Amino acid sequence: MDTETIETSAGTARVTWHPAEDPRTVLALGHGAGGGIEARDLAALAGALPHAGVTVALVEQPWRVAGKKVAPAPKTLDAGWREVWPALLAAGVPVVAGGRSAGARVACRTAGELGAEAVVALSFPLHPPGKPAKSRADELLGAGVPVLVVQGERDPFGRPEEFPRLPEGWELVGVPGGDHGFAVPKRAGTTQEEALAVLTDAVAGWAERLGS
């Protein structure tokens, strides 16, 4: 694991690399607006995917590096992400953009212009909780590249069945019992470990199919 700092117009960003021995892809993952790269889904992917030939780059936005508690406006998040991108390309293999929640939105908004191979959207916030009419489906569908959506089946920001029909070549995987952070209640028929295995297996399989 290596850490790299990158100066951007939004401040200092940080990338924590979890390298594969012989990578075929880099998966860049941004965090959400309410947490950092320690989120259980990001940590699980960083632990599992290098064994599947995928280098994982966990990207911390400047506001998190600076210790602030509130995320800035979307345009500032997008700017920070764009300016980290050259460091991700330096690995010399295709880069898949991704992230959880707000980080997934950033990845979708910028994937086309940055030339991302694809997008991995974890816990995409399809709508604010209890407000399904305020849909962000256009942001997701406008990614311009293939997208894998991994969504908890109890996510108040959008359950899998609430998502629109996705384009051909895209995928949507539901995580049994998972909420917006993929936490699974003890009463669920799925353990926390099993839920995270669904997530990591889905992303590893998606990455492998992209390269085939």
Structure description:
- With about 210 residues, the chain is of the alpha/beta class.
- The chain contains 6 helices and 8 strands.
- The chain has an 8-stranded mixed beta sheet with strand order 1-2-4-3-5-6-7-8, with helices on both faces.
- The longest helix has 19 residues, at about 190-210.
- The relative contact order is 0.15.
What's the quick description here?
By secondary structure, the protein is of the alpha/beta class. Helix content is 31%, strand content 23%. The protein is built from six helices and eight strands; from the N terminus they run βββαβααβαβαββα.
Biggest pleated-sheet summary: 8 strands, mixed
Judged by helices, strands and strand pairing, the structural class is: alpha/beta
| Average pLDDT taken over every residue | 95
Give the strand tally. 8
H-E order: EEEHEHHEHEHEEH
Strand content: 15-25%
The stretches of 5 or more residues where confidence is low (pLDDT under 50) are none
**Broad shape:** globular
Number of continuous helical runs: 6
Query: Termini, distance in Å?
Result: 27 Å
Helix content: 25-40%
Radius of gyration: 16 Å
Strand order of the largest sheet: 1-2-4-3-5-6-7-8
Per-chain topology:
Elements: E1 2-8, E2 11-18, E3 25-30, H1 40-48, E4 54-60, H2 62-65, H3 74-89, E5 95-100, H4 102-114, E6 119-122, H5 137-141, E7 147-152, E8 171-175, H6 192-210
Parallel strand pairs: 3-4, 3-5, 5-6, 6-7, 7-8
Antiparallel strand pairs: 1-2, 2-4
